[in-house]
Amino acid sequence: xxxxxxxxxxxxxxxxxxxxxxxxxxxxxxxxxxxxxxxxxxxxxxxxxxxxxxxxxxxxxxxxxxxxxxxxxxxxxxxxxxxxxxxxxxxxxxxxxxxxxxxxxxxxxxxxxxxxxxxxxxxxxxxxxxxxxxxxxxxxxxxxxxxxxxxxxxxxxxxxxxxxxxxxxxxxxxxxxxxxxxxxxxxxxxxxxxxxxxxxxxxxxxxxxxxxxxxxxxxxxxxxxxxxxxxxxxxxxxxxxxxxxxxxx
Length: 249
Fold this sequence. Notes:
Layout: H1 2-48, H2 54-67, E1 74-78, H3 80-83, H4 88-91, E2 97-99, H5 107-112, H6 114-117, E3 125-129, H7 132-136, H8 141-158, E4 163-167, H9 179-194, E5 199-202, H10 229-239
Parallel strand pairs: 1-2, 1-3, 3-4, 4-5
GO molecular function: phosphatidylcholine lysophospholipase activity
Organism: Algoriphagus marincola HL-49
Protein name: CE3 family esterase
């Protein structure tokens, strides 16, 4: 009898553990299904959220693949002041130039897209125009400089011999109420470049002012923000010293 009772106890015990295991497996299955559902949901959400300027950057990279580019070129990048400089290669025809400007961008945007717009193109020199929109958006100068410094660092980690130039913000009439912030940013850029090797500063602010210290009235489009041909003629003269082999026409 003892033997029979022992068998019955083991039988009940086994049934208990079998049910427990089956319940556990069922719960795990339900949990895994829920987990996979949540993962799929979040992946879908992430994919549906486009990274700022993704489309613009793709258009630029597609154009470069289509037209080709030369390693060791001089590269200009940054916001709309660069993007709209459509005569850039014509202004300095003796040197291969790549223009990867994308309008409305900030230093943070350039940092985010630095690989396709700069690093993978392997330029010998890089001119960067960022900070204009940053100030207009209310970004603190220390944050702008942190982004610019990281950009420079990443470029020179890839190629320590690459010469990088930070272009000052320009004096736009439509943003003249932020004059002091722009002057402070330009000074911060200049101060930073003076302490770094293979990093330079290009002042476009001063040559664009009239005798009274205000932005020249005839060098901007109607929006009083973007430059017309006369404005880019000034820039051409400013940058001519970086292309000494060129002859201004």
